[in-house]
Each structure stands twice: as C-alpha cells, then as structure tokens.
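Please check this.
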Amino acid sequence: MISIVYNSQQYAIVAYPTHEALELVDKTCSRSLFVHGAAAGGLRRAIESIPDEQRSEESVDALLDEYCAGTARPIVLH
C-alpha cells in the first residue's frame, strides 16, 4: 500500500511502507528521487526536526530542494 504523506504545490512525498521507502516528486522540475532504508529514515527525521512553529510548506519545500539537489532524476514518460 502506498500513500501520499506530503503534498504541496511544488513537491509530493509518496510512502512505500512495505519497502521502508519514500519517493520525492518535484512537480515543478519534473524530477523524482527514491530513497529507502536509512536514507528514508533520515529524510523523515530531517522533516520532523523542523520546529513546529517554523514548519510550513515553504520550510519543508526548502528542505526538499536541498535534499534533491544534484540527486533527483528527470521524470521520463515513454
């Protein structure tokens, strides 16, 4: 079972619990990044470490921008 755990105008995060994985989808740049295991856990912890009073769509999207920089791959349709 998959579920969308975050959805903003720029990003979506899809969770794959049975695989302990997350897929980050950058809607604006049409790219994605699939992380699993420790990397997925690290991303969850990074998002959770943003203090509640500072956690907003802008702060989470900024974190995801940094996380995807240089590692996300273009989404290609066949």
Q: What stands out?
A: The longest strand covers residues 11-16. The chain has a mean pLDDT of 91.
